[in-house]
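Course assignment 3, question 2. Fill in each field.
Student: A.L.
Task: Predict the tertiary structure for the chain below.
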Amino acid sequence: MAEEASVGNGFVERMLQHPLFRSFLWFALFRAFYGAGILVVTWFLASEAEAPLWVSVLFLLCSMVFSRLLFRGIKRLTSKQADASD
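Answer field:
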C-alpha cells in the first residue's frame, strides 16, 4: 500500500512539473476568474445600463481578443520568471 501512495505522489509531482500541464492549469485558472468578471460586466451592460444589445456583443468580442493578449503576456512573464529561477 505504501508503494501505491509513493507511485501516486510521483505521478502528481511529474504532472505538476510538466510544462504543458502547468500551462493548461494556468490557462484554466485565468479563464475561470477572467470569465466570471466578464460575465458580471456583460450582465450589467445588458440589464442595468440600458445599453443596446450590440454593446454587450461588442464587449464580449473585444474581451475575447483582450483575454488572449493578456494571457499571452502573463505566460511570457511567468516563463521569464521560471527561466530566471533556474
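Instructor remarks: The chain has three helices and no strands. The chain has one domain: 23-85.
Grade: pending
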